[in-house]
């Protein structure tokens, strides 16, 4: 899947408080791995999630090899928008 870096960051910023913890718990990942997925730059902890960044407009294009974190983040956003 391809998404712009700015779109990915916007999704993270729209997530309600506690979402990183929820995503990490539901997917059995560390919280830092989830942060890294959304463009966090503290790779000394957690896994570096496989994504490829191509420079360009809107922060560049990000090709995500695994969309589980993004899918769950979007589900959380839908839940909060419909509650």
Q: Main beta sheet, described?
A: 3 strands, antiparallel
Rg, Cα atoms, Å? 12 Å
Helix content percent band: 40-55%
Q: Strand tally, please?
A: 3
Report how far apart the termini are: 28 Å
Main-sheet strand order equals 1-3-2
How would you describe what is shown here?
The protein has 83 residues and is α+β, with helices and mostly antiparallel strands. The model has no long low-confidence stretch (mean pLDDT 86). It is built from four helices and three strands. Strands 1-3-2 form a three-stranded antiparallel β-sheet. α2 crosses α3 and α2 (19-27) packs across α4. The chain has one domain (2-81). It is globular, with a radius of gyration of 12 Å.
For this entry, give a set of tags.
83 residues; alpha+beta; 48% helix
């Amino acid at each position: 899947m391809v998404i712009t870096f700015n779109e990915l960051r916007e999704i993270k910023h729209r997530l309600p408080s506690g979402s990183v913890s929820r995503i990490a718990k539901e997917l059995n990942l560390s919280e830092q791995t989830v942060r890294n997925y959304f463009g966090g730059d503290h790779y000394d902890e957690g896994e570096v999630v496989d994504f490829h960044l191509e420079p360009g407009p809107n922060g560049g294009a990000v090709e995500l090899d695994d969309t589980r974190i993004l899918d769950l983040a979007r589900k959380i956003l839908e839940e909060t928008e419909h509650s």
